[in-house]
Amino acid sequence: MKTTIKTAAALLVAIAFIATAVPLSDSGSSDAATDTAFTFTDDNGKTFTFDGPVDHLVVFGYGACVTVAETGNLSKIIGADKYSQYDYYKDTRLQNMKAYDLGSPYANDFSEVVKWLVQQVENGSFDKTKDAVIMTSSTNLNTYLLPALEEKGFANIIYWKSTSENYSDLVACVGSISQL
């Protein structure tokens, strides 16, 4: 019984955090993005500052994709790993996602992902200085893909461990994703 109460309380805190972190409507200002600047630090200790929500996301990690979907921003995702695609889990929250399938986040060779993402920059579908790549679920992403993207000039490569060490780490991860 105590575990159920604690779980319910933790869920309510997370929902309340997301609800307060995500702007629900435009304040009427034509320059609303300048009013929503935010900063956070990922699990690699890298600090990111954004002037406001990004236009496009590339997401590795089913939970991260669902978080983006739950904040009403599914259309921002242009690429996601195979486990985040609707066909894998049949999660209806991801059913309308129109994201390129980036394959497994557990690979050691991400050269095709890098090539695809560079093409998205070249065709104007992704801004490597303003948009973001979210990585969760695999240390291989941090070891192999992150440095390859940094080498190509991608600025906002956000890494969150697949297993949080404590509840505040999970809240920080969800909070950062919900702002993007």
How many helices? The count is: 6
Separation, N- and C-terminal Cα atoms: 36 Å
Helix % is 25-40%
Q: What is the H/E string?
A: HEEEHEHEHEHEH
Global shape: globular
**Low-confidence runs of at least 5 consecutive residues:** 1-34
If you average the pLDDT, what whole number results? 83
Backbone CA Rg: 16 Å
Number of strands: 7
**Which percent band covers the strand fraction?**
5-15%
Largest sheet: 5 strands, parallel
| Strand-pairing-aware structural class | alpha/beta
Structural description of this entry:
The chain has 180 residues and is α/β, with parallel strands linked by helices. It is 39% helix and 14% strand. It has six helices and seven strands, in the order H-E-E-E-H-E-H-E-H-E-H-E-H. The protein has helices spanning 2-21, 62-70, 86-89, 111-122, 139-151, 167-179, and strands at 38-41, 47-50, 57-60, 77-80, 100-101, 132-135, 157-159. Strands 5-4-3-6-7 form a five-stranded parallel β-sheet, with helices on both faces. It has a two-stranded antiparallel ribbon with strand order 1-2. Helix 1 packs parallel to helix 6 (167-179). The radius of gyration is 16 Å and the shape is globular.
Give a short synopsis of this structure.
It is built from six helices and seven strands, in the order αβββαβαβαβαβα.
